[in-house]
Write a structure and sequence with these properties.
Blueprint: E1 3-6, E2 13-16, E3 52-54, E4 68-72, E5 86-88, E6 91-95, E7 99-104, H1 118-136, E8 143-150, E9 162-168, H2 173-189, H3 193-204, E10 208-211, E11 215-218, E12 229-233, H4 248-266, E13 271-276, E14 289-294, H5 301-306, H6 315-332
Helix pairs in contact: 1-4, 4-6
Length: 333
């Protein structure tokens, strides 16, 4: 049975999943997998029944004709079990519980995030937003997340464009660390830390990659990995689930611009895209954001020993390189 164990030395909950076993590392492999996509049209009967789909009203559920689909994640360790936390001395644990879903973003296995039509990607982002809002409506949910993985070295098992949404009853270590820093800043100043950082970045411009009227793409000051880039809303918002529909096209525009720049500059690197958000709106201290993390390096002894990161590419250099890629793309057009 998959189990969540609370780290007694920090805020993390660790998923113990022994049935998955060890997998041979293939770091550096970004080539597409051989064989047909299991998510392609025609395979609907072999997959779990869809939860939601973008399809014509005349198109029957669980058949072809869809533009995007949401399914229960096959073989997910997070079953819809009742939270049953237990403790023994300093040790706390519970059976892994929650909801995990797969969002199949497009019927074409070969389409990429940056080659989808803008209208289609906007619909997909709306689908992610609505699923996260629904999952967060469960009062037992402490954390919701969206992740999207491209390339074997980043952990992708299927190349078909897709992502995951997850809702669990335990907090997320990385979001909670950000939230703690943001809460301390808000208590001291009455302002959002993310808003203050974004204001400083827009004033200095050194690490800004691109921006539009609603969103800003920036290489963070203490980027953990080379070419790590965040997209933040200009307006303060703590929950992605509350993003207004009329601003999603602007998020699509900036996201596709950024992904094209990364692909052009780094030759389509394996990448993790991670949403950091609160489940519900109304947190005056926290500010949701998307993190894009190209997987160009791996942790070594110093990283593991110190708890820090080694980044050989300063974010100022990365932002300048990406801006140049964008400029070249504009000239080519």
């Amino acid at each position: 049975m998959p189990v969540l164990r609370k780290d007694p030395f920090g805020p993390a909950w660790v998923l113990m999943l022994p049935e998955r076993g060890l997998e041979r590392s293939d770091f550096g492999s970004v080539s597409p997998a051989d064989g047909a996509s299991p998510y392609a049209p025609g395979n609907e009967a072999a997959l779990p029944p869809e939860i939601q789909a973008l399809r014509p009203s005349t198109s029957p559920a669980n058949g072809p004709g869809w533009r995007a689909r949401v399914l229960p994640a096959p073989a997910s360790p997070f079953g819809e079990r009742v939270r049953d936390e237990r403790s023994e001395g300093p040790f706390r644990w519970m059976q892994a519980c929650g909801r995990e879903e797969i969002v199949i973003e497009h019927p074409d296995p070969g389409v990429r995030l940056d080659t989808m039509s803008a209208a289609h990607l906007t619909d997909v982002l709306r689908l992610y937003r609505d699923r996260l809002a629904y999952l967060a409506s469960d009062p037992g949910v402490a954390h919701v997340q969206m992740t999207r993985t491209t390339g074997r070295a980043a952990g992708a098992r299927v190349d078909h464009p897709h992502g995951q949404v997850l809702a669990v009853p335990v907090p997320n270590r990385w979001v909670e660390e950000e939230a703690a820093a943001a809460a301390a800043h808000h208590a001291a100043t009455g302002r959002c830390l993310f808003c203050d950082v974004l204001e400083a970045e827009l004033r200095q411009r050194d690490r800004v990659v691109s921006a539009n009227a609603a969103f800003v793409a920036v290489a963070p000051y203490a980027a953990k990995t080379p070419f790590e880039t965040w997209i933040l809303p200009r307006a303060h918002e703590s929950a992605f689930a509350a993003v207004a529909a009329n601003r999603l096209p602007l998020l699509t525009e900036l996201l596709q611009t950024l992904v094209r720049a990364l692909n052009d500059a780094l030759e389509e690197p394996p990448t993790n895209m991670i949403l950091h958000t609160r489940p519900h709106p109304g947190d005056a201290a926290y500010h949701w954001h998307l993190e894009l993390l190209p997987r160009l390096t791996r942790h070594a002894g110093f990283d593991w020993a110190s708890g820090s990161y080694v980044n050989p590419t300063p974010p100022e250099d990365a932002a300048r390189f990406l801006r140049q890629a964008l400029a070249l793309a504009e000239v080519a057009e």
